[in-house]
Design goal:
Blueprint: E1 3-6, E2 16-18, E3 21-28, E4 32-39, E5 42-51, E6 54-59, H1 69-82, E7 86-89, H2 108-113, E8 120-125, H3 131-139, E9 143-148, H4 152-165, E10 170-173, H5 177-180, E11 189-195, H6 211-220, E12 221-231, H7 234-244, E13 251-255, H8 264-271, E14 277-282, H9 306-312, E15 318-319, E16 324-334, E17 337-345, E18 351-358, E19 361-365, H10 373-388
Parallel strand pairs: 8-9, 8-11, 9-10, 11-12
Antiparallel strand pairs: 1-6, 1-7, 2-3, 3-4, 4-5, 5-6, 12-14, 13-14, 15-16, 16-17, 17-18, 18-19
Length: 392
């Protein structure tokens, strides 16, 4: 993550402008400051905090910007504007290092707002080393492969291989598969691969495979499209087999298949004599189209000043059956305005966002939540809390 470490120095004045970068405001808390930056059509925050008697200025994770070069440009402009003494940094704009093919790493908003294709779409859930994903993409260049993974080193490894092999039909997404399918159009996907998911034998509620996931998979699959589970876990096999039996759609169970490509772990398991099961269910009907509700506006009139509101917000996470809301940090811009950092939505992949409170206006800052059902439920609760100043 781009950052600089400097000698302690005074805050810059805002609003100000330097080298093509606008610094609009600074929001303060007892621990750190958030500096609002605008470059071209991008708005994001820098975080400034004290560390070991110096100042650390870095890109704010919640409002991270792409390309990362913009964050480096903002930090260069900040140094020039503040006149601070830099102790160390990692913001060299030019580098000879082989970087992953980042244009194929997509934020979830890309699939909410921009994604469209006439090609067949295949999705792999938890691609790990990426051996199967890369093999399929190279063997089927007329198809689009979307790889879902939450393990950052695995993502970096696959993106580097995409660059080396000049692969152009892979999109990689760091996102929970159980939520991702909500953004895909009905009857739009040809295959969904779930190969060797974490079995979670002691925490089965955390498994990818569930009735809800199968329902959503059958909605997005084309007729004759398939959801394919491959597992070496006897417990996961029995659990999934029982799930499949609850559906009228055609399904198959095969054992110890030799596929064209296998992972190093699969090779090891075969040498150990472990069984491997393939459970596949096929969509057999057309699903109705869905429309994503992208409205996250606040239909309220906030009557509290920012400092009054932040004092009344719940301090602990609010946990409901299928969503959560946590008001984590507050940053004051002025007595009537400020930012509130919120974690919301799904337990397993919370969405982090800033709420801007400015006089009587309340809105999400920089970006709105992605339109999952969990985020919508969380938004309604946030609206209620902000309106009343507390949870009624």
């Amino acid at each position: 993550m781009p950052h600089i470490i400097t000698k302690k120095h005074n805050a810059i004045e805002t609003p100000s402008f330097k080298d093509g970068v606008f610094f609009d405001f600074i929001a303060h808390s007892s621990k750190e400051d958030k500096i609002c930056v605008r470059i071209e059509d991008k708005t994001f925050l820098l975080t400034k905090l004290e560390k070991n008697g110096n100042h650390l200025i870095k890109l704010d994770v919640t409002t991270k910007v792409a390309p990362i070069l913009l964050a480096k440009k903002a930090l260069h402009a900040y140094v020039a504007l503040s006149g601070c003494e830099v102790i160390s940094s990692n913001i060299a704009i030019h580098s000879t290092r082989l970087e992953p093919q980042k244009e194929y790493l997509k934020d979830i908003s890309y699939f909410v707002n921009d994604f469209s294709t006439t090609k067949d779409i295949c999705v792999e859930v938890g691609f790990g080393s990426g051996r199967h994903l890369l093999y399929q993409a190279k063997a089927n260049k007329d198809k689009i492969y979307i790889g879902l993974e939450i393990h950052t080193p695995s993502i970096e490894q696959v993106l580097k291989q995409v660059r080396i092999d000049n692969i152009e039909n892979i999109f990689v997404v760091n996102y929970d598969a159980r939520l991702f399918l909500e953004f895909m159009a009905s009857n739009s996907i040809s295959q969904i691969f779930v190969h060797f998911p974490v079995p979670w034998d002691k925490k089965p509620h955390r498994r990818v495979m569930s009735k809800e996931f199968i329902d959503e998979s059958l909605r997005v699959l084309k007729i004759d499209g398939s959801l394919e589970l491959r597992t070496d876990s006897p417990l996961y096999y029995e659990y999934s087999k029982e799930l499949y039996e609850g559906y009228s759609e055609k399904s198959t169970i095969l054992k110890n298949q030799n596929l064209e490509v296998s992972s190093k772990y699969e090779d090891r398991w075969k040498r150990m004599g472990k069984d491997i099961w393939d459970l596949t269910i096929y969509a057999d009907k057309q699903s109705p189209a869905i429309t994503l509700d992208k409205d996250f506006s606040f239909n309220i009139e906030n009557k509290l000043l920012f400092n009054e509101l932040q004092a009344l917000l719940p301090k602990k996470p609010i946990v409901e059956d299928d969503f959560m809301v946590h008001f984590t940090y507050s940053f004051e811009i002025a007595p009537k305005s400020g930012l509130i950092h919120i974690s919301m939505g799904s337990f397993n992949k919370p969405f982090c966002v800033y709420l801007m409170v400015e006089n009587e206006k309340v809105s999400y800052f920089v970006s709105t939540p992605v339109p999952t059902s969990a985020n919508h439920k969380a938004h309604k609760l946030i609206e209620k809390i902000v309106k009343n100043g507390e949870l009624q």
